[in-house]
Amino acid sequence: MFYQKFHEGEGRKIAMFAERLILPIFALIILWNAVFIVSPGERSVVVRLGSINRIGEEGLHFKIPLLEKNLIFDVKTVKLERNAQAYSKDIQTVNTHLALNFHIYPDKVGTLYQEVGRDFVGRIIDPAIQEALKAATAQFTAQQLIEERHKVTEEIKTKLVMRLEKYFAID
User: Fold this and answer.
1) Are 104 and 112 in contact (CB under 8 A)?
2) Which of 23-35 are b and which e, b meaning 16 or more Cβ less than 10 Å from the residue's Cβ?
3) Mean pLDDT computed over every residue of the chain
């Protein structure tokens, strides 16, 4: 009854305006939020109501608006540079500028998000760099660090690979 009275006179113009303009715009907004694109070198973790629903590879994907959210992870090689301090075997201070090239294993993106979260650099990689550097430099004297630089580099890389191999490939 209210609907019938509303559609008479002035109310009818407002109702037609809502039906023809506002509702289609609202529907387009909902549809726009249901589509997402995963670019080359990325993976998507689709989370539905707090749990991982699926992992999206490159391409066009759909999600349920308001129920699912899309998180993009870069699986291309990333260069991470850090300054670190450690001590040599003869207790000399060693200041190092370290560069680490790594990428996330594409099939481990969901596990990484579930177990670590999005701040994996701060929670896993940075502590691993500090630990590997300190453990490796403590095995050499200051003079050996300079003379056997290649050995030290390999030792640091070996320790990093052991620590990070669950989620990452060290290049």
Assistant:
1) yes
2) eeeeeeeeeeeee
3) 90
